[in-house]
Specification:
alpha/beta; binds ligand PMT
Length: about 400
């Protein structure tokens, strides 16, 4: 099935607002508009003043079958182009191509044209397809702006690698129109009531950091906030699974439909998870579990002495490895948080812990790992790797749930 057909399933009758900014890739917006129309969507085009230099309003009006909006009002008759009602009308706002300039303005809330005021008013999902020179794309300022937008829920259709208008070659070419149309189709499909594809499945998710007491006052822990694991638990429950979330201490609310078991230490997490696994169909091991814990916990607060203090640590039990030994036909998904030799370490954990697949995140990637609302992960299984772009943790959770569904369908 081609991408336009795939998009057509979910785009019929949808209201798509297509934003075009001043980039040479604007010519591809004509094809994107045509694909959206062919798929049955109603398309309204908003252009920045500069975009008109790259593609004519006449072309876009003819293809979209709607007048093009550029200015805040029509100078001929004073009619007001309401960014608020455009934002309310749209089921999805797709900005393609999105220049570095427009992305920067979106990230900082600048509202100096109709395309941007509409973005600030939009209540619908927003998708951007960046297009620019490779150095502009790679620049830390642009990357920071993209991370800010992803954190706020904007979806990015990553640019491709190839020949650029500058004559250079690299990452920055706007994604192809078919890819963007298919992305919008999938996005709108996922916005509909979640299909209960995991009904009848019992799944465990571990999340957050463990806390290993040294004395009544101090402990050893790590930076995990629980956000990644909670997003996974929420997504699995939304798809109909019965989810037990074994969670370290966090301030996050329990996702709807999820049963939470609170634990503190690695030993407590081990006991709760292994007990729940008896009745489970699978588990996702997202928690950042301490590998070492103090050999003994002082009953009273340790007092400062003159010299150094040595605390003897013992190994904790490995929860994932134990589930891997017991799993049989059940599904086991692991995580690997690495700082170096990422691929090799993740591969070794995949085998040692008998995971069906492992989700690798590296602290060397900006926007990946602890605390933030985004992650950049690579799925690794025995057939190969799939590297995903920077996504929100919710989107990563959806991709993990998609893989789990496929594993159950084997
Ligand atoms: O919570 P956030 O702030 O959103 O951050 C998310 C995250 C960075 C914590 C998450 O994406 C992540 O990477 N979790 C795994 C962290 C980790 O401890 O990885 P590891 O490489 O040390 O462990 C490998 C696997 O074994 C993991 O699935 C881990 O849960 C599991 N494990 C490890 C030790 C142990 N004693 N028992 C375990 O089950």
């Amino acid at each position: 099935m081609d991408s336009a057909t795939a998009a057509g399933r979910t785009l019929a009758g949808r209201h798509i607002l297509l934003g075009i900014t001043g980039s040479i890739a604007a010519y591809k917006a004509a094809m994107l508009c045509r694909l959206l129309k062919t798929a049955g969507a109603e398309v309204q085009v908003v252009m920045t003043p500069l975009a008109k230099q790259f593609i004519t309003p006449l072309t876009m009006a003819t293809l979209s079958k709607n007048p093009i909006l550029v200015e805040f009002f029509n100078p001929e008759n004073g009619a007001w182009n309401s960014h608020v009602s455009l934002g309310e009308w749209a089921d999805c706002y797709v900005i393609a191509p999105a220049t570095a300039n427009t992305l920067a303005k979106m990230a900082t809330g600048v509202a100096d044209n109709l395309l941007l005021t509409t973005y600030l008013s939009a209540r619908c999902p927003v998708v951007v397809a960046p297009a620019m020179d490779l150095d502009m794309y790679a620049h830390p300022a642009t990357q920071q702006n993209l991370r800010t937008l992803v954190e706020r829920g904007v979806r990015i259709v990553e640019p491709g690698d190839g020949e650029l208008a500058s004559g250079l070659s690299g990452k920055g070419r706007m994604a192809e129109p078919g890819e963007i149309a298919a992305f919008v189709g999938r996005l709108l499909d996922g916005q509909d009531e979640k299909k209960k594809t995991l009904t009848g499945k019992r799944l465990i998710v571990t999340a957050g950091a463990t806390i290993e007491a040294i004395d009544p006052v101090r402990f050893i822990s790590n930076h995990s906030s629980g956000k990644m694991g909670y997003a996974i638990a929420g997504e699995l429950a939304a798809r109909g699974a019965e989810v037990t979330l074994v969670s370290g201490r966090t301030a996050l609310p329990v996702p709807p439909g999820v049963e939470r078991v609170d634990v503190l230490s690695a030993d407590e997490m081990y006991d709760a998870t292994v007990a729940a696994f008896d009745k489970a169909d699978g588990a996702v091991m997202c928690a950042a579990v301490a590998d070492y814990t103090p050999e003994s916990v002082s009953e009273t607060k340790l007092k400062k002495g003159d010299g150094e203090l040595f605390i003897r640590l013992r190994r904790t039990r490995d929860i994932a490895a134990e589930l891997g030994r017991r799993k049989g036909e059940r599904i086991l998904v692991g995580f690997a948080l690495e700082t170096d030799h990422e691929e090799a370490h993740a591969q070794s954990k995949l085998e040692k812990k008998n995971f069906d697949f492992i989700v690798l995140n590296s602290l060397r990637d900006a926007g990946a790992g602890f605390r933030g609302d985004t992650n950049k992960v690579t799925f690794i299984d025995r057939t190969g790797d799939e590297a995903l772009p920077l996504l929100s943790k919710q989107e990563v959770a959806e991709r993990i749930a998609d893989r789990i569904e496929r594993l159950f369908a084997r």
